[in-house]
Design goal:
Elements (H helix, E strand, L loop, with lengths): L4 H14 L20 H7 L4 H8 L8 H10 L4 H10 L16 H8 L5 E5 L5 E4 L1 H7 L12 H7 L1 H4 L7 H19 L4 H8 L4 H8 L10 E6 L3 E12 L4 E7 L5 H12 L2 H6 L14
Helix pairs in contact: 2-3, 2-4, 4-5, 7-13, 8-10, 10-11, 10-12
């Protein structure tokens, strides 16, 4: 399958022209002579240089990698059909569809884009964080930096002590049950050979996980109130609301605190101090190394 340079360039130009700043959470600005987004705005949304993106629209440059095309599909807020079309234009086979995918649907993404002053994240059915707002990073650390099995909070719970330190000790027993119950449910739904089943196999040597797994508990539900322990501001009690994207199996989690409470004041402080706090104190992950991400 070869790259269709003219088709790719035309599709990118059309999709860029169809998007408005409000669609992707950007300010509209005063001096916008034409409709649609600017190339530099799309490049920023896709985590690449303006020069690289411009070359694609001009039918120039090397064939973009699978990772780059996935980033463009997400940045342009494409539907799954549009994403698959983009992959084929770029000369790649589209990723398999299903709840194991990382592509966030445009509807959920539009809501997420409007929550940039709130602690919010989008996660998969395995608890893999795909996107975080700046305040979410300040609250919990950068959870999108993990790779491999460690992307799943259920896996990290039993292998990474730093993950547990983010939660109040009195909740640890419940959270262990919650993560194991969730993993068992997904593994049963997706079947042998699934990523969920593979995670369970990787954790089989962990005594705590093994004891909970053999208990065969299912249906444990998230509590509406969570108690985080932040290394800089201390304990926070936050409410967690969720929105489900049934088509992709993704959850939008939104964390808020009761106005006037001590936790509310701490969240306000974190919003002022910025994500740097969360990045410095967050759990250790493996950073992304996609070589063409910024070229």
């Amino acid at each position: 399958m070869g790259i269709d340079r003219s088709g790719l360039a035309e599709f990118l130009r059309r999709r860029r022209g169809a998007l408005q700043p409000d669609d992707v959470g950007l300010p509209h600005g005063q001096r916008r002579r034409t409709g649609g987004l600017r190339r530099e705005e799309v490049a920023a949304l896709c985590h690449m240089s303006t020069d690289y993106y411009s070359r694609l629209e001009q039918e120039r440059g090397p064939q973009p990698s699978v990772q780059m095309i996935a980033s463009i599909a997400q940045g342009l807020h494409l539907s799954l059909d549009e994403r698959d079309h983009l992959f084929r234009l770029a000369g790649h086979q589209p990723p398999a569809r299903g709840s194991a995918g990382d592509h966030v649907g445009p509807g959920l993404l539009r809501i997420f884009d409007r929550l940039q002053d709130t602690a919010a994240e989008i996660v998969t059915e395995l608890g893999e964080t795909l996107l975080q707002t700046p305040l979410s990073v300040a609250l919990t650390g950068d959870l999108t930096s993990f790779r491999g099995p460690a992307r799943s909070i259920g896996y990290r719970w039993f292998t990474d002590p730093a993950t547990r330190r983010r939660y109040a000790p009195e909740e640890h027993a419940f959270l262990g049950r919650l993560f194991v119950s969730g993993l068992r449910g997904v593994a049963t739904l997706r079947g042998p050979g699934s990523r969920a089943a593979h995670l369970a196999e990787l954790l089989a040597d962990n005594a705590e996980f093994r004891d909970l797994w053999t208990g065969h508990e299912v249906g444990v539900r998230h509590r509406d109130v969570k108690h985080f322990v932040h290394p800089e501001v201390g304990e926070l009690e936050v409410n967690c609301q969720s929105l489900v994207d049934q088509d992709n199996g993704h959850l939008l989690l939104v964390y808020t605190a009761v106005p006037g409470s001590e936790s509310y004041d701490k969240l306000q402080l974190l919003s002022v101090l910025g994500a740097g706090l969360g990045e410095r104190a967050g759990p250790v992950g493996v950073a992304a190394t996609d070589g063409d991400r910024r070229d």
